[in-house]
């Protein structure tokens, strides 16, 4: 059965690529109000395509921000599972334009890659699902499972209204599991299942000293320096072995199982000297870089400032000093509790002679993890592996994807993160591209996966 | 003999104040090229005044920057000592103009103070010497000692060309001791002898990590964070008891003698909550704030920056982090050695996974101190005390005055710092003023002091 669907995709490859190019030509930059019309055009493109395939109830749903496209095809019968397919039609701005080798919104094929803003993130991957559904309909006249589609237009600006929309229309969007293709493989053509994401919280704090910047000659020796106080507080948060020193921070951490450590050891090691320029990595004592980035919590200073920042010297004791800190959390950790621990730590380590004001990061999220042995994950891995001809690696990611947290929170269903991007795709940067091998094998993966669940 | 001189000053007070006002009306702002002509006018005012009094060899000496005024009167005979009187005719800019209650360059008398930019720093204090010399000449037909005058025009912009000028014309400027009135009293009408200044050195260093800012979710746990590394290095430099932890830092410090600790205990204590808004002070363990600010070395972070500084959150591991550090040194400490110790400390405390680049502060200076028991200091204190009717306090200052370092270095002569400013003078700020009591009693002090040396 899948063979004819796959053959259809082969036979119609040029036509599908041309349709994708039309999608990519719409500069649906969500952050820029000048592109409001383009945003609506892109939503219209998706809804027209779904209507043409034969989806029912195709809607462009308005939100207080950009609209999202909903569609459903629920004719696979009551015994067949229902999948919620999520993706986004909005893209990042293309600036700086002068660094693009070809126009960002005029898709170009070269080196077996399709170059355009959105080719990988996420129009290219959204379109793969659309083309696969079309192939099923054209070949079999039906889809193997029930499908709900949710393609939003605000992912690149923080999915501000998505959570509310899903919560308001819980009944409409409800499904047995979700599939998202908005991530990547750890290496070209290396099938990768992402089974966990980290949670998130943070604080910003300002150490306040004198009313104004003071002459360091006249007041040095009498007045506590807020910059030095800040340095002491920050240094007390993490030791040089990258072990976080915040009391209770690790209390609820779900430990890495031996199985996971084995899975993580199989992930091809990133060449950090190439990707970051750093020649020696550092990780939490007793953990590898793979284990720490994927499966252990982190605390990072994201920004810090105070006093004189210009050229040369200005001999002052500054009035204040500020640091921005965020943590990535793992399953078991409660972001609100962690935020409390951070606040307690800062207050307890505040030296005399200064005060502190603390802003709590308003966006917090729990970590997400699905059991890598979950039958859906095993099936996705099997399809992925067959299509690419290589064993799958299982990874957890240090980042967060807001929609996953929302789906987990609202529907409490497994999320299959089936991403086909590659490390060379230059997401958010000039010359974004997507490999045609990902396009072709990715669609084969999806055909096999959906068919296997029918 | 001094009585008639003092009487002359009393009788001609209005005339002297009017002459000072003419001096203050010239907006000789040294940092602003638009005031080039005013700079020259102010130099001309000083040289005209000295000529009129009867000084010889009055010169406006050009430098690569603003000119300085030199004059001499050497007819007191070969047995009389020669004093070098230093001051400056340039002033700080008057901005922000809207905060001045009366025009900065239209001197106004109110509350027994003369309001104008430069009234205290330093035209008012320079003029007191000029008026005193005039009074001696008008009364006695001569000065009690030999006098060389050096009034520069670049003090407010760092005395950039002064050192070279003094070194080039060493023979011309050479004297037995120097007198400078460009500082202040610790309280209104509280005679204050400044007998020591701190030295100075510093470094700026940048901790370099990845080539670019990295996604803290993807790289947290593998890549050392330069901001956290910077915090660790800074925190290692000074403990929470304000004791500097740089190896060898205190090795050559000349300890405070019991005599000095007694002198420092007599200095009226600054109300830091009023002057700085800080309600609790901190000082080096075992030393008071007075002892630490005046007589113990300090290390201060003057500025620090790295990563994201805008509103909200940006989850990055930044590429680099920078700190600016300066130290104030006491007698015995060699600024070059201290700079080496700082560099060594930074390198030794650099964690793995990052590199550091260090800029050495180009301006370093040794501390300056004259023995408070030196006969010239005792004589100055005696004159000061008689004129103001109160015992003198002896202070050392945490700041540096470049000209003192130059005079010490080139001529190796004692410098008598006889300042008549007060804490309320608002130097460098809107509504600068100078109390008439300082003007009157200060001139009496100078008459008595010069006469006593004749």
What this model shows, in words?
Two copies of one chain form a homodimer. Chain A is an alpha+beta fold and 454 residues long. Chain A folds into two domains: 2-197 and 367-453, Zn peptidases (Aminopeptidase); 199-253 and 297-360, Alpha-Beta Plaits (2-Layer Sandwich), CATH 3.30.70.360. Helices cover 35% and strands 21% of the residues of chain A. Chain A is built from 15 helices and 18 strands. Chain A has helices at 2-11, 13-24, 36-53, 123-140, 162-168, 170-173, 216-219, 226-235, 258-265, 272-275, 289-295, 335-348, 375-388, 402-411, 436-453, and strands spanning 56-61, 68-73, 82-88, 108-110, 113-115, 146-152, 177-180, 192-197, 199-208, 214-215, 298-307, 316-317, 320-329, 355-360, 368-369, 393-397, 415-417, 433-435. In chain A, the strands form five sheets. A six-stranded mixed β-sheet of chain A has the order 1-2-6-3-7-17, with helices on both faces. At the A-B interface, strand 9, strand 10, helix 7, helix 8 and helix 11 of A face strand 9, strand 10, helix 7, helix 8 and helix 11 of B. Strand 11 of chain A pairs antiparallel with strand 11 (298-307) of chain B, so a sheet runs across the interface.
Largest interface: A-B, 81 and 81 residues
The first-level CATH class of the largest domain in chain A is given as: Alpha Beta
As a whole number of angstroms, the C-alpha radius of gyration of chain A is 25 Å
Strand content of chain A: 15-25%
Q: How far do the termini of chain A sit from each other?
A: 11 Å
The amount of helix of chain A comes to 25-40%
Number of strand segments of chain A: 18
């Amino acid at each position: 059965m899948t063979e004819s669907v796959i053959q259809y995709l082969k036979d119609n490859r040029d036509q599908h690529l041309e349709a994708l190019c039309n999608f990519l030509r719409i500069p649906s930059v969500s952050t820029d109000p000048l592109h409001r019309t383009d945003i609506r055009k892109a939503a219209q493109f998706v809804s027209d395509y779904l209507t043409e395939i034969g989806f029912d109830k195709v809607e462009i749903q308005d939100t207080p921000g950009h609209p999202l496209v909903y569609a459903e095809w629920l004719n696979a019968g009551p015994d067949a599972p229902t999948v919620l397919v999520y993706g986004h039609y909005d893209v990042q701005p293309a600036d700086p334009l002068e660094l693009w080798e070809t126009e960002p919104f005029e898709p170009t094929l070269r080196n077996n890659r399709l170059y355009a803003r959105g080719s990988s993130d996420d129009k290219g991957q959204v379109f793969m699902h659309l083309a696969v559904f079309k192939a099923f309909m054209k070949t079999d006249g039906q889809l193997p499972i029930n499908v709900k589609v949710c393609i939003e237009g605000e992912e690149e600006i923080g999915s501000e209204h998505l959570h509310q929309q899903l919560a308001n229309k819980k009944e409409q969007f409800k499904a047995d599991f979700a599939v998202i293709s908005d991530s990547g493989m750890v290496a070209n053509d290396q099938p990768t299942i992402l089974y966990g994401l980290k949670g998130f919280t943070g604080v910003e704090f300002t150490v306040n000293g004198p009313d104004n910047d003071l002459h360091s000659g006249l007041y040095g020796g009498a007045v506590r320096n807020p910059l030095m106080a800040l340095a002491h507080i920050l240094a007390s948060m993490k030791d040089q072995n990258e072990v976080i020193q915040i009391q209770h921070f690790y209390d609820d951490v779900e430990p890495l199982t031996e199985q996971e450590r084995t899975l993580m050891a199989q992930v091809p090691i990133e060449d950090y000297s190439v990707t970051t320029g750093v020649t020696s990595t550092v990780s939490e004592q007793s953990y590898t870089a793979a284990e720490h980035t994927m499966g252990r919590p982190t605390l990072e200073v994201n920004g810090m400032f105070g006093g004189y920042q210009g050229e040369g010297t200005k001999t002052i004791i500054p009035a204040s000093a500020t640091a921005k800190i965020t943590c990535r959390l793992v399953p078991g950790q409660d972001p609100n509790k962690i935020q409390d621990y951070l606040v307690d730590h800062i207050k307890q380590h505040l030296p005399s002679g200064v005060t502190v004001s603390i802003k709590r990061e308003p966006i917090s999220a729990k970590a997400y993890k699905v059991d890598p042995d979950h039958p859906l994950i095993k099936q996705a891995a099997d399809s992925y592996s067959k299509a690419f001809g290589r064993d799958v690696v299982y990874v957890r990611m240090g980042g967060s994807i807001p929609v996953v947290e929302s789906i987990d929170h609202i529907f409490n269903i497994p999320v299959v993160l089936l991403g086909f991007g590659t490390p060379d795709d230059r997401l958010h940067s000039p010359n974004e591209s997507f490999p045609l091998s990902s396009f072709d094998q990715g669609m084969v993966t999806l055909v096999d996966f959906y068919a296997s669940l029918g």
